[in-house]
Amino acid sequence: MMSASRSLFLALGTLAALSFGPLLLEASAKEIKKCTTITTPGFYVLKESLTASGDCIKITADYVTFDLDGQTLTGNGTGAGITDDGVTRQGIVIRNGTITNFSDGINLGSSTRSLIERIQAISNGNDGIRVGNTNTLRHNIANGNGGGGRDRSQLQHYHHRQYCQQQR
Predict the structure, then answer these.
(1) Which of 12, 57, 108, 126 has the lowest CB atom count within 10 Å?
(2) Coil/strand/helix, residue 24
(3) What is the pLDDT of residues 81-124, one digit of tens each?
(4) Which residues fall within 8 angstroms of residue 17, CB to CB, at 6 or more apart?
(5) Is the Cβ–Cβ distance between 94 and 104 less than 8 Å?
(6) CA–centroid distance for 62 within its chain
(7) By the 8 A CB rule, do 139 and 115 touch?
(8) CB atoms < 10 A from the CB of 14, how many?
């Protein structure tokens, strides 16, 4: 059985990591200035809006945070703006931007324990946001996507602050 002081220590440590961890990660952010494959864990930030043919950002590592920093990924109607490339990943965080005119805006259909927040998925041909098991969506907008905005058939941790409108 865990002592009260050990429990308090663990709780404070977790709180500190959640509070200050993002600040430390942001200080060492790797800048993204073109469509690419992210192959190592870490914090990445999009420095300018990008236009792509096919997939733009492929994430092939666990524990990746990708901050669009208010920028936009624009496709040509094919591929995914951001994808796990059909391979199971975990601990992916995608936040703060717009993804438009891809086949799928975000396709993390194979990934688990990931977070997508403050994303606008607009006018993608299929799903705006597609996720696999045990992922969290928070404060996203999916509008005008052909597949109904978001595919959450396998989603267990769904937060209600979503706006979704299917293309008519």
Answers:
(1) 12
(2) helix
(3) 999 999 999 999 999 999 999 999 999 999 999 999 999 999 99
(4) none
(5) no
(6) 12
(7) no
(8) 11
Structure tokens, 115: 């977070």
Q: Over the stretch 52-65, which tens digit does the pLDDT of each residue have? A: 999 999 999 999 99
Alpha carbons 92 and 114: distance in angstroms, whole number:
5
Beta strand 42-46 with 30-32 is: parallel
- Amino acid 105 reads G
- Hey, which bits of 39-167 come out as E strands? 42-46, 50-51, 57-59, 64-67, 72-74, 80-83, 93-100, 104-108, 115-122, 127-131, 136-138, 140-145, 149-151, 157-158, 162-166
The C-alpha angle 7, 13, 89, rounded to 5 degrees, equals 105
Residue type at 87 in one-letter notation: V
Q: Which residues pair with 64 in a beta bridge?
A: 42
Cα–Cα dist 161/71, whole Å? 21
Q: Which residue has the higher pLDDT, 26 or 164?
A: 26
